[in-house]
Specification:
307 residues, mainly alpha
């Protein structure tokens, strides 16, 4: 194991800390505005400028807790961006780094967010049991704040739906709604701001769609998809189109494609474009009862998506 260069004096420490914090803010703003794929070049630049992002975390034990915490948070943000950009192996590696750095400095809240992100990643890549295990690690000796506890329940709902359960996902998402209604608290971590009504609606609808409960899924996803929010929430629009296709709502699906396709090339979330591509392919194989115009729209959508 090669040791990283030892920390310098106070001035170097402060400069390195400011760089990590600024980089985190810049990546979050870029991701929210343009999407994860647009942020990947900035991620590469961050790794080039901050060598600790490539060093073995065990070699950084002499760094101060504030600097380790800043590196842990930056690693978590990079892990999230790589996940939404479809770079799943890189996202896993950065999640492991974030957890190791958070452990070194005792930053339990960054560790929890990383575990919640990792649960989402493992569900997305078809490993729901690993997703449940990651979500279970978020709990601690004290009860979690309501919004964080609700997010744990959401992650569990997705994973159990993928495992084939029928009632448990609905019970979990209902409990998540109840916890959300408990409101904010002084114990909420600083990153909990994005756990809002639109986020909850989108996941409620998505879980309902996983269970093929189209009549419940469509209105929830529609409300989430039409609410203002960061770029990554285009995913709810993609899941809405999937639910409309599943429900055989051909006219509504065609109308949604007409709104989505012109801007599809600029979508910055690979998760979103993967979902849209799957739905377009399914619509091209739709039953004969589906109008020809819908198949034409689906073909146009598929051609419009980024490679």
């Amino acid at each position: 194991m090669t040791a990283a260069a030892p920390p310098g004096g106070a001035e170097e420490h402060d400069a390195a800390l400011r760089l990590a914090v600024r980089t985190t803010g810049r990546l979050l703003a870029l991701d929210a505005r343009q999407g994860a794929t647009a942020a990947v070049p900035a991620v590469r630049e961050a790794v080039r400028r901050i060598p600790e992002l490539a060093a073995d975390p065990r070699t950084l034990h002499a760094y101060g807790p504030d600097r380790l915490a800043a590196l842990a948070e930056l690693s978590e943000v990079i892990g999230w961006i790589l996940f939404d950009a479809g770079r799943y192996r890189g996202a896993r590696r950065m999640n492991v780094r974030a957890l190791a750095l958070a452990d070194l400095c005792g930053d339990r809240w960054t560790a929890r967010l990383t575990l919640l992100n990792h649960s989402m990643l493992t569900t997305h890549t078809g490993r729901p049991r690993a997703a449940l295990a990651a979500a279970a690690r978020v709990d601690g000796p004290r009860p979690l704040p309501a919004r964080v506890a609700g997010l744990v329940l959401i992650r569990r709902a997705h994973a159990t739906a993928l495992l084939g359960a029928r009632t448990e996902p609905l019970e979990l998402i209902s409990r998540a709604r109840s916890r959300f209604l408990d409101g904010v608290s002084r114990r909420d971590p600083h990153w909990a701001w994005w756990i809002d009504e639109a986020e909850l609606l989108g996941h409620e609808g998505w879980v309902q769609a996983r269970l093929r409960r189209w009549d419940r899924a469509v209105p929830l996803l529609h409300r989430a998809a039409t609410a203002p929010g960061p770029s990554y929430r285009h995913l709810f629009t993609a899941e809405l189109l999937s639910a409309l296709a599943g429900a055989g709502a051909w006219r509504e699906a065609e109308e949604l494609i007409a709104r989505v396709a012109p801007g599809a090339a600029a979508i910055g979330s690979v998760r979103t474009t993967e979902s849209l591509r799957r739905t377009a392919a399914a619509l091209l194989r739709a039953p004969a009862a589906a109008p020809a115009a819908l198949r034409d729209a689906a073909a146009f959508l598929r051609e419009s998506l980024p490679a």
